[in-house]
Amino acid sequence: MGHTPAVPDAELTVRLQPRAKRNAIEGERDGVLRVSVAAAPVDGQANAALCKLIAKQVGVARGRVSIVRGERSREKTLRVEGLPPAELRRALGLHIPDR
Fold first, then answer.
1. How far is residue 51 CA from its own chain's centroid?
2. Any idea what the CATH number is for the domain that residue 42 is in?
3. Which of 80, 46, 74 is nearest to 62 (CA)?
4. pTM for this one?
5. Are 80 and 58 spatial neighbours (Cβ–Cβ below 8 Å)?
6. Which of 37, 60, 78, 93 is 20 to 30 A from 10 in CA distance terms?
7. Residue 60 lies in domain
């Protein structure tokens, strides 16, 4: 049985705009992904909408996307488990440097 090397988790800095008209990835500015969600920042609803949107966009299960910093801030750091950083950026169509 061979050992499969672990795939590094990707991290991404996101600036979240809650209570927007729609859920959308707005693009990148200064190395930060800008994302809008319709959900309000109440009881984690906006955070859940953000993680769901990113998971859908990159094609992974919702449970593989988590917030590692900034739960109560508009600027957050997300981790996508089992997805190399370059693949995450490619899936989002971005040119954000590795973290």
1. 6
2. 3.30.1200.10
3. 80
4. 0.88
5. yes
6. 37
7. 10-92
